């Protein structure tokens, strides 16, 4: 099997994306309002703990975006379909943006609680490796001109780099990390679970909406790139 | 920090929320602008 028919940009997709983004804006507004002004401060971290309502949903969705990138990469590798290559590009970019945002939010939270902006702790180090690995894949896509090689190489690189995602997740369990273990509804007060869940769905809807638009952009770029070049000499009026 | 308890810190909270919405907004705007440019380019190519 080989890469063949180019996917056409969808007419319905931008409308679906707009609906998801609108829903995300409402959810993030409500979730952040509850997180900032309604939820109680945590006993030890006080007001600073409110960063959790954006940091944890960003973490969940960053891991999810990179998982979608991994699934897209598997489809590119085994089905060799341009549609999945466009999706791979979209999810890679979103995963990288969310991962960098995650590191910056974590750094802002670390300063008042740990006393430092950054520490080479297992969770932070594996997340930094994750960010740079996927930035490298985006750079690879940027510099490889042949679309088939670009799709194949970036799919293989994504499958390899994805190995770090479970390592990031389990790092707090496997090693003696400064970072706390995962929060679950059982470990978080019910008053704090509500804004956490609302913001998680807000970022989820936003990233799906943006992924749809970014995938449409990748399809258009691919179609433009693979369009047949114009003939050098025009055969006007059928006369050679 | 006082006796293991963090006091204040609202500036860090605002910084984290501000950065989050700024980054997500800027990324969304960047996609919208790039998509508009790509649509314009494909319309010109079709002409």
Question: Would you spell out the secondary-structure blueprint of this structure?
Answer:
The complex is a heterodimer of chains A (240) and B (47).
Chain A: H1 13-38, H2 52-79, H3 82-114, H4 122-143, H5 147-161, H6 164-174, H7 190-226
Chain B: H1 10-46
Can you put this structure into words, describing what you see?
- The complex is a heterodimer of chains A (240) and B (47).
- With 240 residues, chain A is mainly alpha-helical.
- Chain A has one domain.
- Chain A contains seven helices and no strands.
- The longest helix of chain A has 37 residues, at 190-226.
- The radius of gyration of chain A is 22 Å and the shape is globular.
- Chain A starts with 12 loop residues before the first helix and ends in a 14-residue tail after the last helix.
- Chain B is mainly alpha-helical and 47 residues long.
- Chain B has one helix at residues 10-46.
- Helices cover 79% and strands 0% of the residues of chain B.
- The chains are: A mainly alpha (240), B mainly alpha (47).
- Chain A binds chain B through residues 21, 28, 32, 36, 43-48, 50-51, 54-55, 58, 94, 97, 100-101, 104-105, 108-109, 111-113, 115, 203, 206, 210, 213-214, 216-217, 220-221, 223-224, 227, and chain B through 1, 4-10, 12-13, 15-17, 19-21, 23-24, 27-28, 31-32, 34-35, 38-39, 41-42, 45.
**Per the principal axes of the C-alpha atoms, what is the gross shape of chain A?**
globular
How many β-strands of chain B, per DSSP? 0
| Average pLDDT, all residues of chain B | 89
Largest interface: A-B, 39 and 29 residues
- Helical residues, percent of chain A: over 70%
Offer a concise description of the structure.
The complex is a heterodimer of chains A (240) and B (47). By secondary structure, chain A is an all-alpha fold.
Task: Name the features.
heterodimer, A: 240 residues, mainly alpha, 0% strand, B: 47 residues, 1 helix
């Amino acid at each position: 099997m080989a890469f063949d028919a180019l996917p056409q940009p969808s007419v319905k997709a931008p409308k679906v994306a707009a609906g998801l983004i609108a829903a995300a804006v409402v959810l993030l507004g409500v979730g952040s309002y509850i997180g900032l002004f309604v939820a109680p401060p945590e006993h030890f971290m006080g007001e600073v703990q409110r960063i959790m309502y954006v940091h944890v949903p960003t973490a969940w969705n960053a891991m999810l975006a990179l998982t979608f990138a991994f699934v897209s990469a598997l489809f590119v590798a085994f089905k060799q379909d341009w549609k999945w290559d466009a999706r791979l590009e979209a999810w890679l970019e979103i995963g990288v943006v969310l991962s960098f945002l995650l590191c910056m939010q974590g750094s802002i939270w670390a300063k008042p609680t740990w006393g430092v902006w950054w520490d080479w702790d297992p969770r932070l180090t594996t997340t930094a490796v994750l960010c740079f690995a996927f930035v490298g894949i985006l750079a690879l896509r940027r510099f490889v001109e042949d679309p088939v090689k670009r799709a194949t190489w970036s799919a293989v690189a994504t499958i390899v780099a994805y190995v770090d995602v479970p390592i990031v997740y389990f790092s707090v369990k496997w090693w003696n990390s400064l970072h706390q273990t995962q929060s679950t509804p059982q470990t978080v007060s019910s008053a704090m679970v509500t804004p956490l869940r609302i913001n998680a769905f807000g970022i989820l809807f936003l990233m799906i909406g943006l992924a749809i638009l970014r995938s449409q952009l990748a399809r258009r770029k691919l179609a433009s790139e693979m369009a047949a070049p114009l003939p050098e000499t025009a055969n006007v009026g059928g006369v050679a | 920090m006082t006796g293991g308890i963090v006091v204040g810190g609202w500036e860090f909270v605002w910084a984290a929320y501000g950065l989050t919405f700024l980054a997500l907004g800027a990324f969304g705007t960047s996609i919208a602008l790039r998509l508009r440019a790509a649509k314009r380019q494909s319309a010109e190519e079709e002409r």
